[in-house]
Design a protein that fits this description.
The complex is a heterodimer of chains A (225) and B (88). Chain A has 225 residues and is of the alpha/beta class. Chain A is built from six helices and ten strands. The radius of gyration of chain A is 16 Å and the shape is globular. The chains are: A alpha/beta (225), B mainly alpha (88).
Chain lengths: 225, 88
């Protein structure tokens, strides 16, 4: 079964979050990868039923997860159960853990991992075209997410994967000198939530040693201001 | 180890979101940034979030946080939750 990755990249936060997924997750999973303009409702609706895991990075609210230019991808009560049934779902988005994640599980998802408040981090906008290179700021918050996702793709359970993400936030917060970055790490740690079966897991994907011996992706195209 | 300026910001953010409290928090954040910048980092850090239909921008340059704090109660509330861990 394929992996559905929904990675919008139309502004700084989505570019940063999707950049880390592009660099660290995309190389080890099979399509279907929805990037940029493809992160819309119809492509998602067609792709989702085939997958065993859905990973999304985009803007969101308590009852909605959005894609490119805030096109609605998943909204409480407005999607088919086939899109979520039996799947492990991870939404890197704001507040989806409040209503949307419980709704996904109520409609048959094995489990859903999200956040109960805003997902916030500090990023270096000088590195917007190569967001994965932003280790000093964005990497502090986003690498724990990547570690958690890689654990899921290694076949670990959702609970184990979330614990790895949480440990990452704590570890980074302990050594962080910038109080704002540290506050963001603690905030995201406190708001991460797993709904549904914590023992759910997916078929393990082949491991790739980190750092990958791959050429990093080319710079993302920047919109003309 | 949290510095004194950060503690002042925390104390300011604990107040209800009145215009005076927002101005005080903005001033406290400016002081904190002066200290941070003195330590010397050459980049353009921005505070970003993945919120949907918020009244504050998705990305706020860190040096513009005081302006946003002073004018936007919803952003003040977000900073309050992030910095003080208090739920509104």
């Amino acid at each position: 079964m394929p992996t559905v990755l929904a990675m919008s990249d139309f502004d700084l936060p989505t570019r940063s979050a999707s950049g880390f997924l592009l660099r660290y997750i995309v190389p080890r999973v099979e399509p279907i990868q929805l990037l940029g303009v493809l992160v819309r409702r119809l492509p998602f609706k067609l792709a989702a039923p085939q997958a065993d895991i859905i990973i999304g990075a985009g803007h969101g609210d308590v009852d909605v997860f959005t894609g490119q230019n805030e096109a609605i991808i998943l909204e409480v009560g407005k999607y088919g159960p086939r899109e979520v049934e039996g799947k492990v779902i991870k939404l890197l988005s704001c507040q989806c853990g409040v209503e949307l994640c419980p709704d996904l599980v109520a409609n048959g998802a094995a489990c859903a991992i999200g956040y109960t408040d805003d997902y916030v981090w500090v990023m270096d906008s000088d590195l917007a075209s190569t967001p994965w290179a932003d280790k000093e700021f964005a990497g502090r918050c986003l690498m724990p997410v990547i570690d958690g996702l890689n654990a899921l793709l290694d076949g670990k359970t959702a609970r184990e994967a979330l614990d790895i993400e949480l440990e990452g936030y704590s570890r980074n917060a302990e050594v962080e000198e910038d109080e704002l970055v540290k506050a963001c790490l603690e905030f995201n740690h406190d708001n991460a939530i797993l709904i549904g079966d914590g023992g759910a897991s997916i078929r393990a994907r082949p491991q790739l040693a980190l750092p990958f011996r791959l050429i990093p992706p080319p710079p993302l195209l920047m919109p003309v201001a | 180890m949290p510095n004194e300026e950060w503690e002042q910001l925390k104390a300011a953010l604990k107040k209800p979101a009145t215009p005076e409290a927002r101005a005080e928090a903005a001033q406290a954040f400016e002081k904190y940034r002066v200290v941070k910048l003195a330590k010397g980092k050459s980049s353009k850090p921005e505070l970003v979030s993945l919120g949907y239909k918020k009244t504050y921008p998705h990305a706020v340059p860190v040096d513009k946080i005081p302006d946003e704090l002073a004018k936007n109660p919803e952003f003040y509330d977000l900073m309050k939750r992030v910095v003080t861990k208090e739920k509104s």
